[in-house]
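From the methods appendix. Each design record in this collection lists the tokenized structure first, followed by the designed amino acid sequence. Records were kept in a plain field format so they could be parsed without special tools. The example shown here is representative of the layout used throughout.

RECORD:
FOLD TOKENS (371 positions):
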């Protein structure tokens, strides 16, 4: 096993467990800053770790702007001391009132959200204005993923005008997430990202020609932020998420980005049902099941392992090395998708200098905290 993942004593670790290797986490944070050029150019997404202690490490490194997808994440960020929180999510239903409560509860946090439709902008404006407060809104642009947002053009421009004219909301720029850009080659990715970016640039110039402010453009994830980071544009804020822990999926998808996996799963053998099978306590309640069955994990110490059956609390591996294992033996596994995996764990077990040093709550895995 890679010596960076050595642990001197695992006897207190209840499996299946998510472990965070402190030095590797620091290495990834440092590398993220190096790629961005400066911590002030970053607005990392907390969805990967959902953990106060990770946010506090980022703040210590000078990363003050943060991004979230849920109110629980936004609240966790504010609790951890983040002075600037962007909830990159379109608010509907009770989330409109939650925005008002958030602003009341955290008056010193710069808070902003996304919008891509008239209705939430009007509802949000009304709710904020009636309490004498206001909220920043970034217009969500569809840069080709077709998940949320508007394509650049007249409709998007009309909506930006509405944000400007509506009391209780303030225009704060554009949100451009391009998580569909998964080209393996950095050069091909760059061409695809830049082709969308040119349209966004044109659109931004149209807005500015009207005299409208476009103070920031929050752009990119792990695969594309190095491309935005190369641009000399103070409005750009890079918003990677996954690279903080990284996972087997992104290690395979982006060979140009070498972030070591910093969060692994510790599992124990619970049975040896046949000569070539090893059964682990690593069911899909402990690792994200958004990946196809059979492809949810990588076992660095057991490269020929095939995931032949997974239930809620069981994972059956087929391996030519099955006879080396007996109940209680341990294995480390790299999740293929770490972000939804962390949502399945109450805490991470922190390994520092090869020793269990702490446990951190994965505080915002829940849908709500207090707001
Ligand atoms: C809106 C938004 N921004 C940023 C990110 C971070 O991207 P990545 O996980 O590729 O680093 C995500 C990931 O899902 C996202 O949905």
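DESIGN:
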């Amino acid at each position: 096993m890679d010596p960076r993942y050595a642990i001197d004593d695992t006897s207190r670790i209840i499996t299946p467990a998510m472990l965070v290797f402190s030095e590797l986490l620091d290495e990834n944070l440092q590398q993220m800053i190096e790629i961005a050029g400066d911590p002030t150019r970053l607005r990392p997404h907390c969805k990967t770790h959902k953990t106060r202690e990770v946010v506090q490490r980022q703040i210590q490194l000078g990363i003050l702007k943060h991004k979230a997808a849920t109110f629980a994440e936004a609240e966790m960020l504010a609790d951890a001391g983040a002075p600037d929180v962007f909830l990159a999510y379109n608010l509907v239903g009770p989330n409109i009132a939650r925005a008002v409560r958030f602003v009341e509860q955290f008056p010193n946090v710069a808070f902003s959200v996304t919008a891509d439709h008239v209705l939430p902008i009007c509802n949000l404006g009304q709710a904020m204005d009636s309490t004498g407060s206001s909220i920043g809104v970034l217009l969500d642009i569809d840069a080709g993923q077709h998940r949320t947002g508007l394509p650049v053009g007249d409709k998007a421009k009309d909506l930006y005008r509405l944000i400007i004219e509506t009391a209780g909301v303030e225009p704060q720029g554009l949100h451009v997430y391009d998580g569909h850009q998964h080209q393996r080659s950095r050069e091909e990715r760059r061409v695809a990202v830049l082709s969308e970016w040119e349209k966004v640039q044109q659109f931004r110039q149209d807005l500015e020609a009207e005299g409208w402010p476009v103070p920031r453009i929050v752009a990119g994830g792990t695969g594309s932020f190095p491309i935005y980071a190369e641009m000399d544009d103070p409005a750009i804020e890079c918003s990677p998420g996954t690279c903080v822990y990284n996972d087997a999926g992104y290690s395979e998808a982006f060979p140009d980005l070498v972030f070591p996996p910093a969060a692994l799963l510790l599992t124990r053998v619970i049975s040896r049902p046949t000569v070539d099978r090893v059964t682990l306590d690593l069911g899909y309640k402990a690792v994200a099941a958004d990946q196809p069955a059979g492809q949810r994990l990588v076992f660095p110490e057991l490269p020929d392992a095939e995931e032949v059956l997974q239930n809620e609390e069981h994972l059956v591996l087929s391996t030519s090395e099955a006879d080396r294992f007996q109940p209680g033996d341990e294995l480390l596994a790299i999740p293929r998708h770490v972000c939804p995996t962390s949502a399945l764990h109450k805490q991470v077990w922190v390994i520092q200098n090869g020793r269990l040093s702490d446990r951190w709550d994965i505080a915002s895995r829940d849908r709500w905290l207090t707001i």
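APPENDIX NOTE: The mean pLDDT is 98.
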